[in-house]
Amino acid sequence: MEHENGTGVTEFVLLGLSQTWEIQLFLFILFLIFYSVILPANILIILTIQGNPHLDSPMYFFLANLAFLDICYCSVTPPKMLIDFFNRHKTISYEGCMTQLFFLHFLGAAEVFLLMAMAFDRYIAICNPLRYASVMSRDICCGLVVASWAGGLMHSIFQMTLITRLPFCGPNELDNFFCDIPQVIKLACTDIYMLEYLMFFSSGLSTLMCFLLLLISYGALLVRLRVGGPSKGMSKAASTCVTHIILIFIMLSPAIYIYGHPFCNFPLDKVVSVFHTVVFPLMNPMIYTLRNKEIISSMKRLMGRHRLWKGKQEEV
């Protein structure tokens, strides 16, 4: 049955990460262990920040939202990838493919906008500390988070408006383990020359510009902190900026690689896609946490209270 846009393709075939059963089994076990450890840890980060009044600040509010976004982002493609390890014929319906595309770019763009909100928060904290409480109020923070989600939604709607108009009538094999724009548009039965450039500007170039803008912003803040002289507060602020820079590199570098080059296959495409959609998103809040003593100590207290409560329940 053909879709309204004229496509005769009702499903796409995913070639996956490997065709060798032993390698697929190894990858399944590896990713399952990774998810079993890291996913609950990200949930613990959110619970720790929400349950500790001492962490009731804009910086931790944004971090909790980043962890939530990363959990959502890692729920788009990995679950099907794990299931497909046991399927000889890996397929995804046309509707499922478009759904993956929508949420990948919706959540991915929302994370980029949230990183910019976090950079604005650090700018106010370092450059205007006396006005920080009034500028970064709870309403403003919530507004920035809502704006991040809205920006991601607008970006995804723009991408989907272009993709869903394409006719698919011939080949339906995607050389990947999920649906993404660089692979999907190459299967369209029409000239995609202009579309490739539109996608490059809307995803690749825009991500690169955000990446450079964030790096310049944090670089300027580090210079300002260095000029301000050594102190405990300055050292802590500098450490936070360095952590944010690490997050920026981890989150945006793979996206720049995937969407910033011509839409043709490169040897590292699948490897970068795995890190971009599976590994790095769940690792981001963890990296932030490992460099933050306040969150670590709050986690220990939270788990200590849980063990104490569980022990009392067992006694009863």
From TrEMBL:
Highest rank taxon of the organism: Eukaryota
Membrane topology summary: Multi-pass membrane protein
GO CC entries: plasma membrane
Segments traversing the membrane: 23-47, 59-78, 98-120, 140-158, 200-225, 237-259, 271-290
CDD domains: 7tmA_OR4N-like
Location relative to the cell: Cell membrane; Membrane
Keyword Hydrolase in record: no
UniProt cross-references to Gene3D superfamilies, sorted A to Z: Rhodopsin 7-helix transmembrane proteins (1.20.1070.10)
Keywords: Cell membrane, Disulfide bond, G-protein coupled receptor, Membrane, Olfaction, Receptor, Sensory transduction, Transducer, Transmembrane, Transmembrane helix
Keyword Transport (UniProt): no
Domain G-protein coupled receptors family 1 profile: 41-288
Major subcellular site: membrane
Protein family per UniProt: Belongs to the G-protein coupled receptor 1 family.
Record-given protein name: Olfactory receptor
Lineage: Eukaryota, Metazoa, Chordata, Craniata, Vertebrata
